[in-house]
Amino acid sequence: MSPSLALALVPLFLTGPISGPTTPVITPTVVTQTFEEPADADDPAIWANPRNTERSVVLGTLKEGGLAAFDLNGRTIGVYPAPQPPTPDAKPGRYNNVDVLGNLAFVSDRGRDRVRVFQVDERGAKDVTNPATKPVFSKTEQEVDDQHNVYGLAAGHVNGKDVVVTSRRNETTIALLQVTKDNDTKKVSTLDLPSTFTLPNGKQWTVCGEPGEGPQVEGMVIDERTNTLYAAQEDVGIWRIPLRANGFGKPQLVDKVRSWGAPQKYNPETEECEADGPDPGFGGQWLEADAEGLTIADGVLLASSQGDSRFVAYRKADMRPLEDFKIKDVEHSDGADIVLGKLNLLVVHDGERPNGTGFAFIRF
């Protein structure tokens, strides 16, 4: 663990032991308001104000509720609605994931299959998306309504280019987009991750899912120091993928969810995957599916183990697990973001409150 992150995390673990059978529990500094349907909190991103750290802004997607902006006290300073449906029969906008690059925020609009662009300052955010922006994956507006659209999202600076990586809902595909000067993005490459794997015993294992749906990626983060994408395929694990400004390198599966390799079958009555034989034990030890939000601080990768409401810290260089922890009253977290330095802030999605969802802030 890097010295700066280690020092930053020390206060977080004072409520529990660093090692042993008990998972440390962190108490949030503040929490945001609770959002109720149709708003549904999902993914946060931090804009660190370069002139006045205390006037920094946290953004959070609210799905059909749009995009929210918060000050560092967790107060809502703005909510920016998702687009209305273009026709009465079409799907409305639905903001799924967000990431910040400089003074711009990029948002995956799952409802309309677009990447939307927002200008961010201490007052909040303003939608500056090019009105002519096109769907990322869908060939027609009619195909957009099938909802195999943009889903997870990460932004970064790679080989001199500002880029966005976005995944496709219910598919294994991820796409690399370059940011253009007119507040738009241009797709330059795609990569299909596997849905079938060869197990150590030589058998083939296919990830269980609803017919016609593949194991999707949502949580992603770009490591700008090494030009690497980390991508969490929800029912598989964490991939490390070399990234260029115009394409992807060979993906490597660097940690697996515990259920990886376990035989399952889809039950159409319950619409759930159920065990279909003994678990051969080929999965990982740290992640309970879904593998979700990823964020990087110095040499450490933080991952959300959504299935048991934990977070896991890995040493990024070799993906050695360093520590796991929980955040008090935070359940089934999707996205997370962390900034170290003058700000020292971790923000996570809180996926299960009595009346809705929200976000939790931890300052240290």
UniProtKB/TrEMBL annotation:
Source species taxonomy: Bacteria, Bacillati, Actinomycetota, Actinomycetes, Pseudonocardiales
Organism of this sequence: Lentzea alba
GO MF terms held by the record: inositol hexakisphosphate 3-phosphatase activity
Name of protein: Phytase
Signal peptide coordinates: none
A Pfam family it matches: Phytase
Domain (BPP): residue spans on this chain: 16-364
